[in-house]
Write a structure and sequence with these properties.
heterodimer, A: alpha+beta, B: Arc Repressor Mutant, subunit A, globular
């Protein structure tokens, strides 16, 4: 029999203990029979024979015990016994057990939920081939204050060719396009990203049906092809098994479906439905705009065996070469690379890390509470423990039993916490700002379960050690003599209790200060004047890219007619269109020059928008000087432009910008278009309420036609009610056009604050839970304190002290503890909150208002928690307490 | 051995194992048979506490030195028969060696004392 067979037999015996018992009994019975028979043969009487047989055998019970002991694993038996004992003890004190389990479950549940999110975003590797070898390439420019910005296609191609350390470089357009799918029922919109042909091969992603794009497909000629996502395959085509090779109509043009990507492939955004090849002609490379316009993201795969440092060094060499070769565009254009995963999570990492820290602190408070509960109980069970020690129980065994209790408690708490955490992930997904978390990936997988197991164990150790080691030094005799109300030991419990309360209050303060700072910051954000009036406006994003919109004139006519119809709708007081909606984007950027100024006085990084006449009136943006666009500023009229107040301040300080001429080039030449400034308009917040307004030019839509425009429609009533009428109007002008999105401006504004609101809400929730737990802790400790001092209080009362004096005693002690905790917490907070700087708007990390209000709040709640025990202590009947012994 | 003080438990245990293994080299036997055989061969000197045999048998079984199966005796009674395994045979040699060395060591000490 091998070792494995031995182990198998051991397990068999361990679990089939009763069968083994029966077998042994059979054997023993036979043994005794045979021995008895032998004795009878030797001449003894039947009775004597039997007796002698049993004597010769020795103790049957002892044999049975020895046999049982030899079976299975001793420690397993012991452990099972300890667990059963622990469960009995827990059942006997249901209130304590419930309190401990609930507290633990809250702490562990919160950690589970947040860790699931962290796991999904930060820890899980990208679903690509060897994702660690993928680097995101970006460009930077100190003059434009660009960092980690989009890449110009010509630069990307040069890197691809010249940097040997890159096995290949792929690119994709930054930003999705909305395309209309026609011919499959009603026209529907899908999100499409344009990518280079080698996109899928560089990432190492394989389609689940058909083929992905090939390198050759990047280019102007050739049949149009498309790779679709699994979602689109099911949504639009019902999972048609013959989808590969089918021709579909996108934006009026035909494209052949090459393949279908698997569900897990959601790159570059969660919502992308299809990938089309970028159509640029190699001949375009010579074009300056190919190198000037930055609109791509580039991903490089490192060649085998190349380190990122070496690759970066090579990249920098090429960048310097390009700077010298193309001074017009690349003079100060730098570039760099970041591991792809790091780059993608850069916005989400900080908030998630903050939340993770917050829930870890919450768990600490929970453990402190449970630890105190168990400690008090351990002290309360001193007599029982002393008696057990006196009767011969091993100290080690008792410690092991106490630890087992903690383990059992933490396992129960952990199990409930896991369930709570699962529910928490649902809540997280529901509350999160769209796009922040990869919703499909936030789930309980083995990593999450492992994390829960780890924190459960650590928590169990944290709150279990002190109670378990409680009786380490005490002599049973002492305890039994003291009659259960031990002096020095009660003080020991107290000291622990005090320490725990101080710690809890400090941590609760830290959490609440963090939440408070976010609340103040959020409030400051909401108070920012966006530069326009958001209430009462409906926004409608359209993409006039269908078959009818093949020419600029058609697009212009489309929007003109649409706006006319909409203005005629009942309830509409004004309507216009803009290429960029405020609080979403600032549009494209360029350099510019003002006529009559020195050549080196050009402007950098000016934003551009195209707007229709009446836009500023519709949005209630003040026209500070000059005029708005009118219908006269048409396609053939002189080129005009508006500037925003920021631009006027920066470039026309002390001058009147009206009448000045500008061109959107750094060094205008004969081909440049000169435009005359006809007005100055108020600043609008372009990307977010927290970002300063960028200098911006507005050009008339009629002179710079764009396919994608957002309508803004003002109504005195509720803008949402205009929805159906607007849809009908759009349908009347072009039945094949689907509306990309329709939202009220108030909703857009709220969405722009979504991330801040989310973080603030989560941290508030954790802070409130933390305060609640800390308050419970304070209450518990003060109740314990009052109970311990009840004899002293009784004496005082009997000697004539006022009840209020007794109350004050307890409250003073409580306040003292809480104050120490607050001071400690403030100290830590002063150092720690600087890590929150990045989330704060207009609020200092050591904001005095928060740092005064929060401690006050905690002080008040803690005093309230102390009040009840104080009241009870003062109401106690002195005679009764003194009689108690 | 009945009159002298009992040797320490682990020595006794080891000795018992050795005796059982040796006994089983001849033929498979059940528990009672083994105890009788040991008594026989020791010419009555070793009066092994019969009950302690069964935990020993379990121990040896778990080590893989003996294997067991239920069989019927000549008188049609159900008994558990134990048999020496190949591994057990090897172990017997090793244990015998150990025992002889132990005995010699004790003898040396007694002789020089």
């Amino acid at each position: 029999m091998s070792v494995l067979q031995g182990l198998a037999r051991r397990l068999q015996l361990a679990f089939g203990t009763r069968a083994a018992d029966r077998d042994l009994d059979d054997e023993i019975r036979l043994h005794l029979e045979l021995e008895t028979e032998k004795n009878i043969r030797a001449g003894m009487s039947a009775e004597e024979a039997g007796r002698q047989a049993r004597v010769a055998f020795g103790g049957v019970e002892a044999t049975r015990e020895a046999h049982r002991d030899g079976r299975g694993m001793r420690w397993l038996d012991d452990f099972a016994g300890d667990v059963r004992f622990a469960l009995r003890v827990l059942r006997r004190s249901p209130a304590l057990t419930l309190a401990a389990v609930v507290t633990l479950a809250l702490g562990i549940g919160a950690n589970t939920a947040i860790f699931s999110a962290v796991n999904a975003v930060i820890l899980r590797p990208l679903p690509f081939d060897r994702p660690g070898r993928l680097m995101m390439l970006w460009e930077s420019n100190p003059e434009f204050h660009w960092d980690q910005q989009d890449v110009a296609p010509a630069n990307m191609l040069d890197w691809r060719e010249q940097v040997r350390a890159f096995a290949d470089v792929a690119g994709y357009a930054d930003g999705d396009e909305a395309v209309t799918l026609t011919g499959e029922g009603a026209p529907r919109l899908f999100t499409v990203t344009a990518v280079t042909g080698n996109f899928f091969s560089v990432l190492g992603a394989r389609p689940k049906k058909g083929q992905a794009l090939r390198d050759a497909e990047t280019g102007k000629s050739g049949t149009r092809v498309v790779v679709i996502s699994d979602r689109m395959w099911h949504d639009a085509f019902g999972g048609d098994p013959r989808i590969v090779g089918r021709t579909i109509t996108l934006n009026g043009k035909e494209a052949r479906v090459l393949g279908v990507m698997p569900t897990a492939f959601r790159f570059p955004s969660e919502t992308v439905d299809a990938w089309i090849p970028l159509r640029f002609d190699p001949a375009d490379r010579a074009d300056v705009s190919f190198r000037r316009a930055h609109w791509m993201r580039a991903i490089a795969r490192l060649a085998p065996g190349v380190s990122p440092e070496r690759a970066n060094a090579e990249l920098q060499t090429v960048v310097r070469r390009l700077q010298l070769q193309y001074p017009e565009t690349n003079r100060v254009m730098g570039a760099g690379m970041t591991p792809l995963h790091d780059f993608l999570v850069r916005d989400t990492r900080r908030p998630l890390d903050t939340l993770l820290a917050a829930v870890a602190l919450l768990l600490l408070i929970a453990c402190a509470n449970v630890g105190n509960l168990l400690l008090v109980r351990a002290a309360g069970r001193e007599r029982e423990t002393a008696m057990r020690l006196a009767l011969g129980a091993g100290r080690a065994r008792l410690i092991r039993q106490a630890l087992t209790e903690s383990v059992v408690l933490s396992v129960i708490g952990g199990a409930v916490g896991l369930a709570l955490g699962w529910w928490g992930t649902r809540v997280l997904i529901a509350l999160q700002p769209p796009g922040m978390l990869p919703t499909g990936e936030v789930r309980m997988d083995w990593w999450v379960l492992g994390y829960v197991a780890a924190i459960t164990t650590v928590s169990g150790a944290l709150f279990g050690i002190a109670p378990a080691l409680w009786n380490r030094r005490r002599m049973p005799a002492e305890v039994l003599k003291e009659g259960g109300r031990g002096g020095s030991d009660a003080r020991r419990v107290q000291r622990w209790g005090h320490a725990l309360v101080i710690g809890e209050i400090a941590i609760a303060l830290l959490l609440t200060v963090g939440a408070g700072l976010l609340v103040r910051s959020f409030h400051a954000l909401t108070q920012v004047n966006p530069g326009f009036e958001a209430r009462g406006v409906l926004t409608v994003l359209l993409s006039a890219s269908g078959p009818r919109d093949s020419t600029t004139n058609n697009v212009r006519a489309f929007y003109d007619e649409l706006l006319q119809r909409i203005r005629a709708l009942p309830g509409v007081s004004a309507a216009a269109a803009t290429s960029e909606l405020p609080l979403t984007s600032w549009g494209w950027t360029s350099q510019f020059s003002v006529a009559g100024r020195a050549a080196d006085q050009y402007g950098n990084e000016v934003a551009h928008r195209e707007v229709t006449p009446g836009y500023f009136r519709t949005m209630h943006v003040p026209v500070l000087r000059g005029r708005e666009f009118t219908a006269q500023d048409g396609a053939t009229a002189p080129r005009v432009v508006l500037v925003n107040a920021a631009l006027a301040r920066q470039f026309f300080a002390g001058q009147d910008p009206i009448g000045q001429r500008v061109a959107f080039d750094k060094a205008p030449d004969s081909a440049s278009v000169w435009r005359t400034i006809v007005g100055v308009v108020g600043d609008e917040r372009q990307t977010s309420l927290g970002t300063e307004t960028k200098i911006q030019f507005m050009t008339p839509f009629a002179q710079e036609v764009r396919e994608e425009m957002t309508l803004v429609i003002r109504t005195p009533g509720d803008p949402a009610t205009l929805g159906p009428a607007v849809r009908r109007a759009v349908g009347a002008v072009d039945p094949d056009l689907a509306i990309v999105s329709m939202q009220t401006m108030s909703a857009v504004r709220a969405a722009s604050l979504a991330r801040q609101r989310f973080l603030m809400t989560m941290l508030l929730v954790f802070a409130v839970v933390g305060i609640a737990l800390a308050v419970v802790g304070v209450y518990g400790v003060m109740a314990q304190y009052a109970r311990a001092r009840s004899r002293e209080m009784g004496i005082r009362l009997a000697l004539g002290a006022q009840r209020s004096e007794v109350r004050r005693l307890v409250v003073r002690r409580g306040l003292g503890l809480v104050t120490v905790g607050l001071v400690a917490g403030i100290g830590v907070a002063l150092l720690a909150t600087r890590f929150m700087q990045v989330f704060l708007f207009d609020v200092a990390p050591v904001d005095p208002v928060t740092f005064v209000a929060v401690p006050l709040l905690l002080l008040l709640t803690a005093v309230a928690a102390t009040w009840l025990p104080a009241l009870r202590a003062s109401r106690a009947d002195p005679v009764a307490t003194l009689r108690e012994e | 051995m009945t009159a002298s003080p009992a040797p320490p438990a682990d020595v006794l245990r080891g000795t018992l194992d050795l005796l059982v293994l040796k006994t089983l080299t001849l033929e498979p036997m059940h528990g009672w048979g083994i105890s009788q055989r040991i008594q026989q061969f020791s010419r009555g000197v070793l009066d092994v506490n019969q009950g302690s045999l069964y935990p020993a048998l379990q121990r040896l079984e778990l080590k893989g030195w003996i294997s067991a199966e239920w069989r019927t005796t000549e008188h049609n009674r159900r008994a558990r028969y134990y048999r020496l395994t190949a591994q057990g045979r090897r172990a017997l040699g090793a244990e015998t060696e150990t025992w002889r060395r132990y005995v010699s060591a004790v003898e040396w000490i007694l002789a020089t004392g």
